[in-house]
Amino acid sequence: MKKLFSALWVGLVFLFLYFPILVMVAFSFNSTTSKSVFTGFSLKWYAELFSDPKLMGALGNTLLVAVLSAIIATVIGTAAAIGIHSYPKRARNAVMNISNVPIINPEIVTGISLMLMFVMVSRWMGLPMGFWSVLLAHVTFNVPYVVLNVLPKLRQMNTHLYEAALDLGATPRRALLRVVLPEIMPGVASGFLMSLTYSMDDFVITRFTSGNFQTLPVLIYTMLKKPLPLSVNALSALLFLMVLSILIAINVISAKRYKKAQKELAK
Question: Which domains does the chain possess?
Fold first, then answer.
């Protein structure tokens, strides 16, 4: 009875979380513009999506910024996490409190402060805000998430592995790449995926720092003055399926690695 109740409760929670997304995906195949009555199956909104230069351009901008900012933030955040992990406990806690400020800070405060900084820099350099300012802004708020994902893996790692690699003749750089990095790779991958999703989803900070550069959230906001076309539903459905596929792939790869490690330990 308890198991049945637990399964029912979990099912209701997942239904509450994913039902709106399922409705959005279903209506992306609606044959008419109705957002409340499903009148028939059609792919015309997907065809309209791929023929809309504004949406496709904004999608390209969003993916470009998300991928680049996630890669840069992952590199910086991983290096920062390794450095923070080597600090004494008090210094480590102090640095972590400082690095958590962008996460706790309201987005509007971060957006306004970054906007003021970029306006000042653009006046000095004669470079208007656009792609570069959005990219730097996204890297700024993504780095703390990478640090938070990598640090637990560093704590779980056996520190003697790195020392053993040095004793066996490996250089610090080689030991870092061949020993430390594979051990913390699940945390690095999680930080990258979190950065990717947060970057694709961000609106407030992007709105303040974008200038004339448009990402999907900014473009959709400008389209809210009129009823949104169902091609936006189609685009959202594709993005959801893409992120879901990436998460499933990462989980499958992690599970295979874990089973392989367990088999090697059993030998």
Answer: 55-232 (1.10.3720.10)
